[in-house]
Structure formats: structure tokens, C-alpha cells
Amino acid sequence: MYLQLATIALLIFIYSLLSSRLAASWLSAPILFVAAGLAFSPLGMNLIDAEADTEALHLIIDLALALILFIDAAHANFSILKRYQVLPVRMLIIGLPGVIALGTVVAFYIIPDFNWLDAAIAATVLAATDAALGKPVITNQWVPAKLRESLNVESGLNDGLCVPVLLLLLAIAKGQGQQDVYSFGAILVIQEIGIGVLVGLLGSYLGVHLIKYCYRKQWITLLGLHIGSTAMVIAIFATAQSLHGSGYIAAFVGGLVFGYLFKKETYQLLSSAEASAETLAMLTWFTFGSGVLLFIIPDITWEIILYSLLSLTIIRVLPIVVSLIGAKEPLSHQLFLGWFGPRGLASIVFTIMVLNSQIESANTITAIATCTVIFSLIAHGISANIVINKLWKPNH
Fold first, then answer.
1. DSSP class per residue in 145-202
2. How many CA atoms lie within 13 A of 204 on its CB side?
3. Is the pLDDT of residue 175 over 80?
4. Rg of the Cα atoms in the chain
């Protein structure tokens, strides 16, 4: 165990030394750490035990995703967001259901032995985009601010919105709630979203004011500010989850409140939390490469590969472009927003939920999600700088 820990820590340390150089290339941290995990696994040098503890992995991914969602929301530009809110609203209200619906139809006709319910579960698992994988685009100043903020809000909220849908579909698949499925679904959606929003608002509001009060009284050190901010994020996420709400929505809403109340101090206060989130994410990707891939590769078929490619392209892009009709955005912007919907940590979390449900199609859905995430790491990692240079950066 300690050899594995030392290996991962050393790789993270080496990456940190080269982070500035690597940031300008297509070799993102997820790509490098998945590749490293695969290289150290039994498929490579066989230096790492491939047995993955799904419960521990789930917790690590949850914490990484919660911190990333909170931080990205805290850094949101409210003036830009208020002016161009129509874009993320359309993408979430029209685009997201469209992605799930189109993904369901395509999965039903492409994946052997899938019924409509299996297809809907697979489509929902892949509907959520990854805020972490989208960071190279969201933080790139060459990209118009309205597009960056729109992608930030969409990726921050769509995974939380997908949670009640996925839970409802899994409950039906397991034979629960079939008699009154519509009222059950409505209650589940209201509960997940409502509790998430409420905990995010109250938790962040109270936490920020407590931090400010203690700072004025000189009761808190600089280190305490960083520790308190990070602990507050985890507390907000875990509280919402424990109350059967969406911790992801709570984290994102809490981040919006935090950034609004702290304004200029936000970046400094969350620098430690951001470092923790990135470290957890690297650990997740390494584990994904060294353990998960090993067991999924035998289940991957040409139908799964085809569906994965369609999920990243037509299934994602078409509904987003349709949702933006009438938004007075050029087609290049619409296609940009549609293309940059990378799949990553959220889809892995949803996959673990599917595996834990023990439905018959769990292994196939896991293979689909894994294949899609791998393709997304490569495709979005390579294309980010290329597309941005082509569309906006002068003298590329």
C-alpha cells in the first residue's frame, strides 16, 4: 500500500514541477495520470495492485468534484453571467433534456439487449459534463467571457440536475416506485434540487459571515482562513448529501454565494482548496487508469465504441445547438459550446451509483461510461488549444 502511495505522490510531485509547461500543451493532468495508472497496472509494468475499492474511490471523487464545483462557481463573473444568462439557462432547460432524450434513443438502437430503461440510464450517466476537464477552456482568457461563464454554470449545475433523474431511473429498474412513478419522480427532483440549493445558500452565507466576524475579532490566522474555507465546502456537500439532497448543487450554489460575498478575496481564500481538489482529482485519474480500465476493457465492443463517439459528438452537440436557436449567437459559438462538454468525474460517480444498484445492465453501462470518458480525455484535451487558437487567438 505504501509503495503505491509513494508512487502516486511522486508522480504528482513531478507533475507539479512541470505544471506550467504542461498547461500550454494538450497533455492535461487527467490524460497523464490515466496513462500513468495504466502503465503501472497489470496491463503494463504490473507494479500496482489493480483491486479498486469502489467506496473509497467514490468518496475521493465526490470530494474532488465538490471542491471543483464550489471553486469554479466562486470565481464566476456575476456581471457577465447576469448579462448573458440566457445561454446557460437554455443549455440546461432545453439542451440537457435533449442530450438525455437523444442519447436514450441512440443507445436503444445501438447497444444489444438494451431496453428503453437501460438506454435512459446510460444516456443520463453521460449527460453531465466535467467542470475539471473543462477548466482549460473556462480559464482561457482568449475565449469570450460569455462563453466561459456559460460553460462554467452549465457544468456546475448539470451533474446535480442529473442526479434525481438517475436515481429515479435506477429505482424503476430495481422495481421500486413503479405504481406511482410520476409523483415519486416529482418528489425526488424537488427534494434533490431544493435541499441542495437551500443547504448551499444557508451553509455558505453563514460560513462566510462567521469567517468575516472572526477575522475582524482577530481570532483567526491566515492558515485558519484556508482550513476553514476548505472545511466549509466539504461540510456543505456532506450536509446536503446526508439530507438526501444534491451535494453537487449545494457545492455550486455555495460557491456562487462565497464568491459574491468575498469578491476580491475569493481567489486567495480558496487557493488551498483548489490545490486539494487538483490533488484528489489526480489520485482519482490514476486509480481510474490502474484499476477500473483493467476490468472494463474485456467488455468493450464495437457498439460501445460507436455509442461513445456519438455521445461526445452528435448526441451532445445537436441538442445544445438546437437549444441556442434564437439566442443570437454565431454558429461557431454554438458549436463551441456543444463540443466542449467533456465527460469525466461526474460520469464516474454516476457509474459507481449504477454499479452499486446491481441492475442487470450495470457492466455494460460501466463499459460505455469508461470508454466515453477515455475518448473525452483525449479528444477534448487535444482540441482545446487548437480550437481556441483557430477561433480567437491572433497570430496563431
1. HHHHHHHHHHHHHHHHHHHHHHHHHHHHHTT-S-TTHHHHHHHHHHHHHHHHHHHHHH
2. 29
3. no
4. 20
Range(s) of the domain holding residue 282 = 51-391
- Alpha helix stretches (DSSP H) within 18-53: 19-23, 29-40
Reported as a single tens digit per residue, the pLDDT across 276-304 is 888 988 888 888 887 776 677 778 899 99
Is the sign of the CA dihedral 360, 364, 368, 371 positive or negative? positive
pLDDT of the residue at 123: 97
- For the record, the C-alpha cell of 153 comes out as 454554470
Q: Considering the domain boundaries, does residue 383 fall inside one?
A: yes
Asked if residue 342 lies in contact with residue 138, where contact means CB atoms within 8 angstroms, the answer is: no
Average pLDDT of the chain to the nearest whole number: 85
Question: One-letter amino acid identity for 254?
Answer: G
- Written as one string, the DSSP assignment of 115-143 is -HHHHHHHHHHTTS--TTTTHHHHT-TTS
Q: Which residue has the cell 435512459?
A: 120
Q: What is the pTM of this model?
A: 0.82
How many independent structural domains does the chain possess? Answer: 1
Query: Are 49 and 286 within 8 A, CB to CB?
Result: no
What pLDDT score does 96 carry? 95
* Residue 43 within a domain: no
**Cα–Cα distance list, 357 to 173, 200, 241 (Å):** 9, 27, 17
Closest to 38 measured CA to CA, from 11, 19, 63, 16: 11
Q: What percent of the chain has pLDDT over 90?
A: 32
Measuring CA to CA, which residue among 387, 327, 314, 346 is closest to residue 88?
Answer: 327
Q: Quick check: 114 and 364 in contact, CB under 8 A?
A: yes
Question: Given this model, what pLDDT does residue 240 score?
Answer: 94
Mean pLDDT, rounded, for 34-41: 84
Query: What value does the mean pLDDT take over residues 187-216?
Result: 90
Q: Which are the contacts of 193, defined by CB distance < 8 A and separation ≥ 6?
A: 160, 161, 164, 245, 246, 249
CA distance 73 to 359: 34
234-247 pLDDT, tens digit each: 999 999 999 988 88
Q: Does residue 395 have a pLDDT over 60?
A: no
In a domain, 234, yes or no: yes
User: Among all chains, which residue has been given the C-alpha cell 490502474?
Assistant: 290
Residue 134 lies in a domain: yes
CATH number at residue 349: 1.20.1530.20
